[in-house]
Amino acid sequence: MDAIAILDFGSQYAQLIARRVREAQVYCELFPWDAPAEQVLALQPKGFILSGGPRSVYEPNAPFIPPYVLESGRPILGICYGMQALAHALGGQVDASAAREYGMAEVETISPNPLLTEPRLTVWMSHGDRITRLPAGFHVLARSANSPIAAMADLERRYFGVQFHPEVQHTRGGREILRRFAVEICGARPEWTPASIIEESIQRVRRQVGSERVLAAVSGGVDSSVAATLVHRAVGDQLVALFVDTGLLRLGEAEQVIRTLRRQMGMELIAVDARQEFLDALRGVTDPEQKRKIVGEKFIRIFEAQARSLGSPRFLVQGTIYPDVVESSAPERQKAARIKTHHNVGGLPPDMHFELVEPLRYLFKDEVRAVGEALGLPPEMVWRQPFPGPGLTVRCLGEITAERLETLRQADAIFLEELSAAGLLGKGSPLAQAFAVLLPVRSVGVMGDQRTYQEVIALRAVTTEDFMTADWARLPYEVLARVANRIVNEVQGVNRVVYDITSKPPATIEWE
Ligand code: XMP
Fold first, then answer.
1. Positive or negative, the Cα torsion across 467, 394, 252, 482?
2. Ligand 1 centroid, distance to 511 Cα (angstroms)
């Protein structure tokens, strides 16, 4: 498949560049700028995109364009630092400009070219340094009030540079620019579609596992469901899926996972009813970290016992996705990755050895969803919001009992139902997560002539890009009113509903 290689010079937007190119249906991969040449060239890239970065080209040990890129004869698009590095490498001059240019800018195209076909563009700029002398063979394509060289090119060698960021949403028509570079300038065929992704994954999985047995643990989450379904397409009943019903999922979810994968997808699925076991293990525990630990350990023990009883299959399916892969290979982003891993429950015991089958390893989340849809998984599963591994334990504050879990599940279902009725859930939803939390607090209320003394439900709904920061969603008052009204009327044991209006930071998304 035709591909583009993106070299990451430390940009916070590197993954966005990759996503935009993939949206143009061109396959691409992201590499650290100093990745071994063989690794990058193995992709046989039709062209290179050089990302932005926080450094200055004259700094000691500044990242530079590896020689194999310039020697390849392939088109190059340098973005921001990538453009400066290109100018620097080819004999141009880069200087620190007096004023940093940050924010929106109007760019005017002054020379016809295949990359910037619009006469004017509104773009996002974020740079200190700028190019003051072009390398030989280059000319100016576009300028802005602050950047006399907002874009440059050597059309003969098909080298392009843009000072602005076409990958960010604020740059109007930025997607088109990246598409034109990949498809028209590099000549990469736009063949990266859900159908081709599925076909390619199936071939890869078949080559990897041959006729061996494969085990998949499914949680009901998007990644594990899509991964298991793909592997099932590839190897059919060599796959056995394992679903542990912890009793900690939302209303109706366990039944849905079993029904969909077993009946609709025809998978061999072992469903272990471990609800009582989890309740017993969690009895009397209120500390959040303790809850997480107990759920993680219990899960692993059950998984281990099942795997053994299945004769310990050689292969295990894992729903690793591309952002997990690139984040763990880029040192400057390892801090962010570490923050995420503390959320991942448990790990396999050291004496359990599996070879991993990772059919989603090269996919972004939106691609996983598109593949899930193409495989025929129901929209509720494909568009499911992220759900914490320890499940409702961390949303049921205080002690976990069957009754309190049921109260929480009912309230949560009403909240989701009303959001859905208001068109605020599912595909294209602005809400990243929305859920109910049961507080271990009683408050006084009045119902009819009766005084009540019952627990409180807190509603949480957030918008976020990356889950590292989040804002509370400005839900319509009418929706909140309907939800609160229904919860106190329909859910036993709840007489008060509050809405959480804290952002992250300083609060977290979950309450525990
Ligand atoms: P916080 O609450 O830290 O959540 O703002 C950020 C994201 O992580 C999810 N989360 C978890 N996921 N195990 C998980 O698998 C956990 O223990 C856990 N705690 C929080 C949370 O739902 C949100 O998407």
1. negative
2. 10
